[in-house]
């Protein structure tokens, strides 16, 4: 048995390397799929927000209903203008936010490393067995 160990050790090591490569391939596929889905979710969420904001700006009279109270009229009008400007600013910031969010997702999934842990082999030999 001891004479055969160098050959057996190389076979064991080869099997471990092959299993590690197969596992790495499986993980790469799974993580790539997960990354694609996460980028799609980011894009869908920001697209939905963009559409909502554009609808608000397209029909401001429906979105910003103002009651006609004489003493509050100017204050309310000023608030509506601030709200519209805030919506425009938020709409203008969406492309940059989309780029940052997608880059962050890509960064999280980058740099996959193969790690192979050491292993041990126990050889059990029955009592009275002799090597031929």
Q: Which properties best describe this structure?
A:
single chain; 132 residues; mainly alpha; 3 helices; 72% helix; rod-shaped
Can you describe what's shown?
- This protein has three helices and no strands.
- The protein is mostly helical.
Q: Span between N and C termini? A: 9 Å
Biggest β-sheet description: none
Total number of helices: 3
Which strand-content bin applies to the residues?
under 5%
* Helical amount: over 70%
Count of strand segments: 0
Shape: rod-shaped
Radius of gyration, Cα only, in angstroms? 32 Å
Order of helices and strands: HHH
| Secondary structure category | mainly alpha
Runs with pLDDT <50, length 5+?
none
Give the integer mean of the pLDDT values. Answer: 85
Give a brief rundown of this model.
By secondary structure, this protein is mainly α.
What layout of secondary structure does this protein have?
Layout: H1 5-58, H2 60-63, H3 73-109
